[in-house]
Every structure is written in structure tokens, then in C-alpha cells.
Amino acid sequence: MGFREGNPWAAGPLSRRLRNRSRVPRAPEQEGETMMKFRKLGILAGLTLGVSVLALNAYASEATVPPAPADFPAEGKIKYVARDSILEFKALPEYHEPDWVTKNFVATGKLPAVKDRLPKEPMVFKTGNMPDGIGVYGDTMRHVIGGRPEGWNYGAGQTQGWGGIDIGLSECLTRTAPLFQVEAKDTEPLPNLAKSWDWSEDGHKLTMHLVEGAKWSDGAPFNADDIMFYWDDEVIDPNVSPLGGGASPEAFGVGTTLKKIDDYTVEWTFKEAFPKQYLYTMSYPNFCPGPSHILKPQHPKYSKNTYDQFKNAFPPEFMNMPVMGAWVPVEYRSDDIIVMRRNPYYWKVDEKGNQLPYLNELHYKLSTWADRDVQAVAGSADISNLEQPENFVASLKRAAEKTAPARLAFGPRLIGYNLRMNFSANGWGNPDERGQAIRELNRNEDFRKAVTMALDRKAIGDSLVKGPFTAIYPGGLSSGTSFYDRNSTVYYPFDLKGAKAELAKAGLKDTDGNGIVNFPAGTAGGKDVEIVMLINNQYTTDKSLAEGVVAQMEKLGLKIVINALDGPKRDDAHYAGRFDWLIQRNTTELSSVVQNTEQLAPIGPRTSWHHRAGKDDQLDLMPFEKELNDIVAKFTTSPDNDARVALMKQYQKISTEHVNTVGLTEYPGALIINKRFSNVPQGTPIFMFNWAEDSVIRERLWVAADKQGKYELFPEQLPGKPGDKGPVNN
Question: Are residues 652 and 697 in the same domain?
């Protein structure tokens, strides 16, 4: 598929538009300011008609602050609540389930009574935090995704296709996604599989109490053995890498240990005192244990399997994989659909004792990410994170129609993209002579400044979508996070002449006159500087941004070669260090700061996205990275909110001043969800602590009886035995 195919509102190939763009000296405070007022045309008209923009940059190499982004009147407002108003753990006098479950499974002896399938004290969602109150059973939520499942072995690094599948299957020690609605001063991860925790007096030990009596979807008990298998045999084992890339041992603190106390108690021991920040690391995607009673027999430590055999032991065709999540995979048709049915042993209820989830079935149509937006807006799918700006205008127009089946609500500018340079000159990824030379260049600050100054970010943003959506983003923390400080953000404005001067300072000149600078004599044969840039080929936005970077770097004198891979292969190349540069959509440490904070800097051998240890497990840190490490370490252990804010100001200044990453653009996302669904929290962002599929708390979404559609493919059926084909009806 072409970069712009399927997007009729796009203005044509990005590279052509950038080459044809006139170059005008600009003043920084005017960049991004709108000239058109919205008048009384309404939000939609203001957003879709576009705005006239004078994007004027500062001269030459003068560092400044980024221009203030344009006002965005369509941004939804969050209704803030107290943390303890969301949920609690307690026993209720009675419990209920869908009538058909009682009739077809309990009455026939196929299942125990619902009270015997629940923990002693299940998780109870409080009615007061439900926007539309206690719900009714029935209906389906239809998703569309562009990913494809590798298998069900999450802990061994297999993707289930993204788009919320793994979020619906997995449960983690803590949960953070719903925290978007909690005031910052009250923010701490919500309990989940760990129902409570206690710190020792000296703050070096953390005792966690697990949900007692909870069960996997096949009825097997969940307990501390599952936690310890995940820790010992997946996180600690160097041959296994859990999905998400953040579950390395040092992500929980260098020297941290975990041990089992009893079946429902585990104890962490930390080198630091009171490192409460790691409670966030214990949420999705870093500490979501799998069913050890299924996984352990396949692990090489306990069998004759190789690690590859362990990883691939549960392919997509393996149905009814035991989960702790609300739905279980029961049907998989390659390049067609994944169907998930309600988990009869799910351990969460509402205040009336109704076992959740309310929705009986989830669908994941296997298509493309762009198609997800189209189908959600059209009503043939139910939910989408509108994150590709090429789709904004058409989606807004359709959502504004009275007959529109879906509602669309924008959040803050938390979707951003960075160009990340591989800083590892220590052998990570086994680079050849050219690749090693590029890494040495990446570590040269003059070179990094040349690259960031050569980017016309206003042109890049406008090429994606016209209007007040995109904003100038130099890199570092997202402007939508509460920790962002504009005055602590160093911005090197677009200046091609100044960029070429910086390139010359880095020792690069065009010695053969072909327009591309050469390596110095004696380095990589003095050949043209050719940089391989890794991207995800499943997203139109990623490909469009890459095309723009190629065009603008060519004017600087750098030859960029795109290595476009699908999601899993791209992740494999990334985690193995096989890249010079990569374009990456921002992850939660930049949008929330408190989630996966360790990924803000190379504080351990494998915490940074672009600087990891070589075979000797040692990092070759640059001086500014040592400063970032010190800041992150202090932030992790500081109990003082004011001090943490000040630390992040320091982090932002050092990170952007030294060009730790090269920001490309940032913009808001919008949650698209069918109007028939109830209990959608007000102002839900599509991405902050996690994606919206988690933030909306899908297990408590419901559809009124008179609005329910006939979408269930397996009505009145439940998951079968692990490995059996499909669900069962009695």
C-alpha cells in the first residue's frame, strides 16, 4: 500500500510537499500561531477548514524555547476523582452472573456456583465512579487492528496483535491506566493482582498481598507461584524477554530481589529506600504474569525445549489460553478475526455482586490501523484510538453528523514522535564498520545539533494534517504531561545553513561533490554518510514522517535509507540494536513520567530505548547521560512532589539541550467509541499511562438492552479447555 493510499484528504507525497516549500526566516514566538479566528463556525469548521499560519523561526544556531502551541478548542475535559473512589476489595453478601451461564453451565454441573469461582474478597468497582452506573449483561465490542498475533506467550515476548488484545487478556500486579482521572497529588498505582502492600520501616522491603482465591480462566488457582515463575524464569532469565521491552531486572531497581513468603504473599527487597516509583513499573506491560501451570512445563529449565520452542509453544491457533483477564481467546482465523469470550472465573464485580465483564464477547478484525478509524467512525467497529492525523479531518466531519454512530473526543497533545539515534558504541547489535562509524557520529553533539536544526518541524506537522493539531516538538517530555515545563525545554529552530555549519564542526564534508557528506578519510573508507533508519511499516504516520526525514536530511547532506519492517520484526531489530536511527512513537515515560520512569535514561543495561549495553553488559555513557541517570534515580526515590517537579525540569533541560532525542512532531489523539456504550469516563485520553482500551475500563462498559446488537458469534458459550478448539455451549 502506498504511503497515502486510502487517505483522499491528504495533499500528496510528503517529500514533494517539503521540497516545494519556500524557506522564510522566522521568529520563534510567531511559529505555530494561528491567523484565522474560529468565529462562530463552531469547533468542527475551525478544525477542518485549516488555519493560516506564519511559522517564523529564530535565526541560526540560537537555542530558544519552543513556540507556544496553537489553542485546541476540541480538547475534552477530564472529570477528576479521588483515587479511593474507583475500587476496593471486599466480600459481598451475594453474587450474580448472566442467566445463561447459570442455566447452561452451573445447573448442569459444568461450572461451580459463581460465589465459588470468585476470590474471598473480589475487586469491587464502586458505583459512584461509574459514569452511567451499574450495567446489564450482553453485547459485543468490535475492534479492528492492524497487527497480527505471533502467539499467546506474552511473557516470552510474543505479541498478540496489539490494539488492546493483550490488555484484555493480561492482568498485572498494579494498574495505572485509570489514573488519568486522579489528581496528581493523589496519584499512586491502583491495586490489582496485588490487592495491597506494606513497606518495611527502613523502606527497603515491600510486602505484597495477592488476591486470595482468584483463579485462571480454566479454573486453576492463581498464586505466588505464578509471580515467581514470571520473575525467575522470564524477567531474570537473560534468554527470555517479556513483551513490551521494559521488564528487565534493572527496571525494578539494580540489585532488586523478589521471593515468595506464602501462596498469597511475595516480598521485594530494594537497594534504595522507599522506591515507590517501581509500583508503576509493576503495572502493564512490565509485570503481567502468565499461567505457570501451562507455561512452566514448556520452559527449558524444566524441559528439553529450546528457548525458541518455549516462545512458540502456544501459537495463535492454540485456543482457550488461560488468562486472568476478562475475556479468553476462543477463535482465530488467520488475517480475518480473533474472538474472545467472557472469562467465567473473572475476579472482579460491581457493588451489586454482578460478576464482570458485562460484555460477553470481544472481536478483533484483522485489517489495518487506518481501517480501524474508518470502521469505528462508520459504525462497523466500536472503538478506535484516532492517532493517525491523516484521518483527523474525515473523522471529524463524520462524527459531527447527527446520524453518526460514534462519538469522538480529543485529549491533550500526548501523541508524539522522536527520532532516536543509536548511542551504543559498545557492540550492541554487532554493527559493521559503517554502522560503528554512524554510532560514533550519533554520540557527537555537533552532529546531533545539525540534525535537529535541519528539521522544519512546522512543515512536517502540516504535511500530516492542516489546522491547530500538530505542535513544534523538540523532543523530551510530551507537552501534555503535567511535568512539562516549556521554559525548561531547549529548542534549536530550523536553520539549514546553521545545521550545515554544525555538520562541518562534526568533521563531515562533501569531498566528492555529490551532495552527500563523506566520512573523514580513514573512517568507513571515506564513503558517503549513509544512515539506516528503522521504522514500523504498519502505520501511515510513521511512513510519512520517515519520508519527510529522508527529504530534509538529503538537503543537509545525509543519505537516509529506510528499513521498514512490520511490528514484530521491527521490535526484534530494535531490541537487538540493529539500527542506526529509528522513528518511534512516544511511550508512557514521556507522556506520564511516572509510568516506566526508568526508560527515561540508560540507568541499567536495558532500560533506554536507544542506548543499551553490549555483550559485556556495560554501558558507554556520555557525560550528559550520567546527569540524566542521576536525575531519574533521585526522582524514583523522592517522596516530595515539589522536588520531583524540579527534577523533571532539570531532566527536560539537559535532555533537550544535548539532543538526547530528536523530536519530530506531537499532536492530540481522539477516542472514537460507539454511542451505544455506557460507562465511558469523561475526557479519557487515548494515551497517557496506557492506551484507552485500558483507561476506559472495558470490563465495566455496558450496553442498554434496547441498544444491544446481534453481533455475538458464539452466543451463550464459554471458553473450553486449554488447547481445545473453540468455546463450548454446555
Answer: no
Query: 478548542: which residue's cell?
Result: 73
Cβ atoms within 10 Å, residue 204 = 15
- In angstroms, the CA 165 to CA 132 distance is 25
* CATH code at position 534: 3.10.105.10
Number of domains in the chain: 2
Q: What are the pLDDT digits (tens) for 28-56?
A: 333 333 333 333 334 444 444 343 333 34
Q: Is residue 387 included in any domain, yes or no?
A: no
Q: Quick one: cell of 390?
A: 491523516
Q: Quote the CA–CA distance of 504 and 512 in Å, as a whole number.
A: 15
Domain assignment of residue 218, given as a range: 83-369+674-707
At residue 554, what is the residue type?
E
Would you give the DSSP letter of residue 180?
A: G
The C-alpha cell at 81 is 476523582
657 within domain boundaries: yes
Same domain, 209 and 91: yes
β-pairing verdict for 205-210 and 265-269: antiparallel
Peptide bond into 315 cis (omega under 30): no
Helix runs in 240-344, H state only:
278-281, 292-295, 307-311
Element (DSSP H or E) covering residue 115 = helix 114-117
CA 663 – CA 413 distance, rounded (Å): 14
Around Cβ 349, how many Cβ atoms within 10 Å? 24
CA proximity to 365, closest of 382, 351, 345? 382
**Could you read off the pLDDT of 429-477 as tens digits, one per residue?**
999 999 999 999 999 999 999 999 999 999 999 999 988 899 999 999 9
Amino acid at 420: R
Query: What CATH number does residue 188 fall under?
Result: 3.40.190.10
Q: Check whether residue 435 and residue 452 sit in a common domain.
A: yes
Distance from C-alpha of 358 to C-alpha of 354, rounded to nearest angstrom: 8
Q: For the whole model, what pTM was predicted?
A: 0.80
Q: Which 8-state DSSP code applies to residue 491?
A: B
Which residues make beta-bridge pairs with 54?
A: 33
| Residues 633 and 602 grouped into a single domain | yes
The two beta strands, 530-536 and 559-565, are parallel
